[in-house]
Amino acid sequence: FVEGLESLKDEPCITPDHYRLPLWVNTGLMTDAIRSLDHGAEGVGLYRTEVPFMIRERFPSEKEQEDIYREQLKSFAPRPVTIRTLDIGGDKSLGYFPIKEENPFLGWRGIRVTLDHPEIFLVQIRAMLKASEGLDNLRIMLPMISGVPEVEEALYLIHRAYHEVLSEGVNIQLPPVGVMIEVPAAVYQVREFARRVDFLSIGSNDLTQYILAVDRNNPRVADLYQPYHPAVLHALHKVVTDAHLEGKPVSICGEMAGDPSAAVLLMAMGFDVLSMNATNLPRVKWALRNIPLTDAKVLLDEVLEMDNPRVIRSAMELALRRRG
Ligand code: PEP
Ligand code: MG
Hints:
binds magnesium ion, 324 residues, 15 helices, alpha/beta, 48% helix, binds phosphoenolpyruvate, 11% strand
């Protein structure tokens, strides 16, 4: 069976009724990048820049960051690489930049930290832009966006960094910029965001936790952390519909995209890209190559009428098992 999956590496992700859905990967370290290429990834939907920051004892300099990002961009070129700006706070902290709060998941995290420290943000963007010279496969993504002013401020800083590096002689185009949809407030502002940026990407790990008010890391409430909860599924569906009304592509880069039964629903909802851990990619590809899009859409219609997460999960697993 595993060998069978291995042989799919160079095959496209295409359904029996010829619908093609690009499968990308999430990375953080160079080893992830190499493993992803082994698994036939078509791009990087989320490069978590916190990872290289976490394994150091101080903020990496602009030059160090440039080298780190260039290695990622280069190993995937010409495939697109989505580099997310620093997403610290919440469950991810840096020893050299401690954040102590009562409620870290509702506190100072992601874009909130970097907009309060534009010097960190600007250095990071400048490093990304410089790293992309001659490769042209960079996409910049902003985490934890909850309102239009954050998007506008971040875009202003990105333009500023772009003009700075241009004046230093770097020869690049302004890369596509996207926002993550991972807090409930963002679900209701997709059209406003979509008019200002080039793409959207759902962070379903955080979106699930915030919609259901269930800590994604607390074992005591782990049973309540349900990506198949109707509230989560309806939110995902709405985001895709609204992004497409503005003509903008939308991807998903939470763990959910790496679950074959969930991936079937996500394909039916119309996601333009699914981005997952490299380990899950062969299984997801196998599942999507065995289910026609028309069947997936019928399943989605049925599931959107259901009201129990456990029933939804078993219905999806059963549907997949029936296909082998
Ligand atoms: C998410 O929230 O789904 C996501 C992809 O980001 P992270 O897991 O890094 O918070
Ligand atoms: Mg997140």
